Amino acid sequence: MGCVCSKPARGDERKKKFRKPKPWRHSEPITRAQLMQMREEFWDTAPHYGGRREIWDALKAAAEAELSFAQAIVDSAGVIVQDDDLTVCYDERGAKYELPKYVLSEPTNLIRG
């Protein structure tokens, strides 16, 4: 058990707290249905680009969860977060996982309705 002034255990430096990606803009306004289709296509094809299926599943769960739960999911899966917005990650074997911003947040030019 630690106290307020305790330091992270050795080896915990790799666990970055992350945040939502910075606001981004799609090349043209898109609807929520189009965004969901893009996300579905990405998650369906992502494992074919390499890496382990269970890490992709953990990253998908983290992308769809609230930040506090997402942090726990990533930590428990052993994912090493390079960028604090979760766009670039590695597994413990060194495989790289790149997530596009559209699976992590909504664009500023999303058409509502």
Chart the SSEs and their pairings.
Layout lengths: L29 E2 H14 L7 H12 L2 H11 L2 E2 L6 E3 L5 E3 L11 E2 L2
Parallel strand pairs: 1-5
Antiparallel strand pairs: 2-3, 3-4
Helix pairs in contact: 2-3
What does this structure look like?
By secondary structure, the protein is of the alpha+beta class. It has one domain: Bacteriocin As-48, Chain A, CATH 1.20.225.20. 33% of the residues lie in helices and 11% in strands. The chain contains three helices and five strands, in the order βαααββββ. The strands form two sheets. The chain has a three-stranded antiparallel β-sheet with strand order 2-3-4, with no helix packed on it. A two-stranded parallel sheet has the order 1-5. A hairpin with a 6-residue loop joins β2 and β3. The longest helix has 14 residues. The radius of gyration is 16 Å and the shape is globular. The termini are far apart. The N terminus is likely disordered.
CATH superfamily annotation? Ub domain-containing protein, DC-UbP/UBTD2, N-terminal domain
Order of helices and strands: EHHHEEEE
Helix content: 25-40%
CATH topology: Bacteriocin As-48, Chain A
CATH class type: Mainly Alpha
Main sheet: strands, sense, barrel: 3 strands, antiparallel
Give the spatial strand order of the biggest sheet.
2-3-4
Q: How many strand elements?
A: 5
Radius of gyration based on Cα positions: 16 Å
Q: Tell me the count of domains.
A: 1
Concise account of the structure shown:
With 113 residues, the chain is of the alpha+beta class.
Features:
113 residues; alpha+beta; two-stranded parallel sheet; 3 helices; globular; disordered N terminus; UBTD1/2; DC-UbP/UBTD2_N; DC-UbP/UBTD2_N_sf
